[in-house]
Write a structure and sequence with these properties.
By secondary structure, the chain is of the alpha+beta class. Helix content is 17%, strand content 31%. The strands form seven sheets. It has a four-stranded antiparallel beta sheet, with no helix packed on it. A four-stranded antiparallel beta sheet has the order 2-3-4-5, with no helix packed on it. A four-stranded antiparallel beta sheet has the order 6-7-8-9, with no helix packed on it. Strand 27 and strand 28 form a beta hairpin. Helix 4 packs parallel to helix 6. It is globular.
Length: 499
């Protein structure tokens, strides 16, 4: 029998250590990370530990002490039952739910960003952000560097021959840029022209003109499926290996045999598609300024296979697993966040949040872990549970370097740099962070202290309580309001001739 004085905590097996750690609060677990490498690796990699912490904190947040009438424990239980056990990094899930978030700006205020997409390289598994700029330059960033790791020459997005009166206008309605690491290609839509660039050299390979203005591109290109292009009145399938009926771009890829129907276009009876999604179930979903989501099948292209009625004006789509579809837009002037079950004969009803989703238009939706992300025109990113109703957290984003013009009296724009969050992209399944297109700039949002490297150890940021975070955010908002009031009083005093 081993003497009791010879026993130590680390002499216990992993199973007993996890049982002991399960009784600790998150603050104590994070402190424990800094004491021992073995305990750190053991507790960070255990999915059940952090899943239980997420459940515990979710019930605490759903039952505020001062408002018992807002208790949503029973409704939350139904949502938690849908949480997976092992397919998610629950440690990262807890961090994104409860840790402070910091923004690292990648583009400068002088660079006017006109789009955003992300890719993961196949050999190095780096997660990159790609954006076209107003002056025809394409920048590539990663989350570790504030400066672009690659930059094209100016004017690479100019369409030949460029108009004499103006530069080529980069489309801003829907997704206007998409990239593929497998094809080594970047596709950018400008007016009615699709420009194809090499991802390696950032040189223009081809440009294909369409009969109408391009309003959106499909959110991704996954081999062997081609890119889907939405113009004002038509839909097209495009692959540089098969050419196009509207042009013959010079491409150095070997030609392949494609179905004959790929060269046909699908007409639209109502104009302006704003979102195209290649769903994992092999269907193509189209949303725009029409009341229903259109569904197409590549095997039956260009025949319409069905519709999903929404009633709102949708501008963004995202997949929720193999059988789910997320959509965002507006309904009667308010933001609308919607979720659809695509399983045939599904008993689950369609879920629509048109009350608390957003004050303004929902411009982008994405799936991150167990949460649904929505970004709106008011500069706010919101995280919801899968029911699209229960709010996990909200984050108001501001660009400190963007200031409104001071010579405009009572300008309706805020002077704190807030603007519409046009798009969010999830990088590395949400474990690293989010790429954010806010106003005219691109940034990287991740858990961590301000100015902290996203790749460093940022466990310590979770020791700050939710109350302290909300208090600091409220204090910052009060400072901005007082500063605005002081500026307005100063302007009125100067107009009245007062000192």
């Amino acid at each position: 029998m081993v003497p009791l004085r010879g026993l130590q905590l680390l002499s216990l097996p992993d199973e007993l250590l996890l049982q002991i750690v399960a009784f600790l609060e998150p603050l104590s677990i994070i402190t424990l990370h800094h004491t021992c490498t073995r305990l750190r690796a053991l507790t960070r990699s255990n999915a059940a530990l952090w899943r239980n912490q997420c459940i515990k904190q979710a019930f605490i947040d759903s039952n505020p002490e001062n408002c018992p009438q807002w208790n949503r424990a029973e409704e939350l239980e139904l949502v938690i039952d849908t949480w997976p056990h092992n397919d998610i990094d629950w440690y990262s899930e807890y961090r994104f739910r409860h840790a402070p978030l910091s923004m690292k700006w990648l583009s400068t205020p002088e660079e006017e960003v006109k789009g955003l997409t992300s890719i993961t390289t196949g050999n190095t598994h780096k997660h990159l952000l790609i954006s076209p700029l107003e002056d025809g330059i394409v920048n590539i960033w990663d989350s570790k560097n504030e400066r672009p790791i690659a930059r094209s020459r100016p004017g690479v997005l100019s369409t030949p021959p460029p108009p004499a009166s103006r530069k080529s206008r980069i489309m801003e309605l829907g997704d206007n840029v998409v990239a593929s690491a497998e094809l080594d290609r970047i596709f950018v839509a400008t007016d009615s022209t699709l420009i194809e660039l090499s991802l390696t050299t950032l040189q223009q390979i081809s440009s294909t003109k369409y009969p109408f203005s391009i309003s959106t591109l499909s959110s991704e290109v996954v081999l062997p499926h081609p890119l889907t292009i939405g113009t004002t009145l038509t839909l097209h399938l495009y692959d540089s290996r098969m050419g196009s009926s509207y042009g013959t771009p010079s491409v150095d890829l070997p030609p392949l045999t494609f179905p004959a129907n790929y060269g046909q276009h699908a007409p639209l009876f109502q104009p302006s598609p704003l979102a195209i999604l290649h769903h994992p179930n092999s269907h193509i979903y189209i949303a725009g300024r029409f009341p229903s989501i259109l569904c197409y099948d590549r095997a039956m292209w260009p025949r319409l296979q069905g519709t999903i009625h929404s009633g709102g004006s949708l501008c963004t789509l995202a997949a929720d697993g193999m059988d789910g579809l997320l959509a965002g837009g507006t309904y009667n002037g308010r933001g609308s966040l919607e979720s659809y079950n695509l399983t045939p004969n599904a008993c689950t009803e369609q879920k629509r949040n048109r009350q608390s989703a957003a004050w303004g238009k929902v411009l982008s939706v994405a799936k991150q872990g167990t949460r649904v992300i929505s970004a709106d025109s008011e500069g706010t990113i919101s995280w919801f549970e899968r029911d699209c109703r229960y709010v996990v957290r909200r984050e108001e984003l501001h660009d400190p370097e963007a200031r409104a013009e001071a010579d405009v009296l009572w300008d309706g724009r805020p002077d704190d740099g807030s603007g519409p969050v046009r798009k969010v992209v999830v990088m590395d399944k949400g474990e690293e962070g989010l790429g954010v297109w806010l106003g005219d700039r691109v940034g990287f949002l991740s858990p961590g202290a301000d100015g902290e490297d996203s790749g460093s150890d940022s466990d310590i940021v979770m020791v700050e309580g939710r109350e302290e975070i909300m208090e600091s955010q409220m204090a910052e908002r009060m400072r901005r309001m007082l500063r605005e009031q002081a500026d307005e009083a100063r302007i009125l005093g100067s107009l009245a001739g007062l000192r």
